[in-house]
Amino acid sequence: PQWVAWRWEERPPKPDGTPERTKIPVNARTGGNASSTAPDTWGTFEQAKAAKRDGIGFVVTADDAFCGVDIDHCYRESKLEPQAAVIVARLASYTEITPSGDGVRVWVKAKLTRQGNKKKLLNGVIIEFYDKARFFTVTGNGGTKYKAIEDRQREIDALHREIFPDRPVAAGPFNGAGLS
Q: Are 112 and 131 in contact (CB under 8 A)?
């Protein structure tokens, strides 16, 4: 039972006046807040679904097989930004559109073996990797042909190393492809 419900919460506007909101995990059994590090605040899929909040989410832990790759601000006019399309194709695992409608999440069976979670890429695209102590929203809104969560340890290791290098990376598909 690693499921939570979630709700939108308004935050103070950004300095430019843009409204800010975030997703808060909710304990589906009690209606109180949940935590991605407190298993006693999680429940079953059925409990999360029945909670009737803004959505449901899954908590990734060090003890499960899952890693989520969140790519924000990459899905526009029903198309992926080119750099996001390359990442999704490389991972070739279950991918869905996020609740905001402008991002995608790729689910894989893998564990992160290096440091680094979040980086801004081209055109405002942001990529995040998490395999523990994080909840991810689950929409079921598949935006690609990838419908199954696949074992992608080698692919995650290679992609993560390219995005968060600890030394220069030899010429490869992302050098010159706009990742910064």
A: yes
Nearest to 157 by CA among 131, 123, 126: 131
What does DSSP assign to residue 23? E
In the block, tokens 């899905």 appear at 75
Q: Which two tokens stand for residue 140?
A: 């079921």
Is the CB of residue 152 less than 8 Å from the CB of residue 89?
no
What pLDDT sits at residue 170? 46
Query: For residues 18 and 148, what is the distance between their CA atoms, to the nearest angstrom?
Result: 36
Q: Express each pLDDT in 125-157 by its tens digit.
A: 999 999 999 999 999 998 778 999 999 999 999
Helical packing angle, 153-163 and 82-91, nearest 10°: 150
Q: What is the 3-state secondary structure (H, E, C) of 25-49?
A: EECCCCCCECCCCCHHHCECHHHHH
Query: What three-state secondary structure class fits 77?
Result: coil
Look at residues 111, 85, 106 and name the one whose alpha carbon lies nearest to residue 94. Answer: 106
Nearest to 18 by CA among 98, 82, 73: 73
Residue 3 confidence class, pLDDT cut points 50, 70, 90 = very high
φ, ψ of residue 166 in degrees (nearest 5) = -100, -5
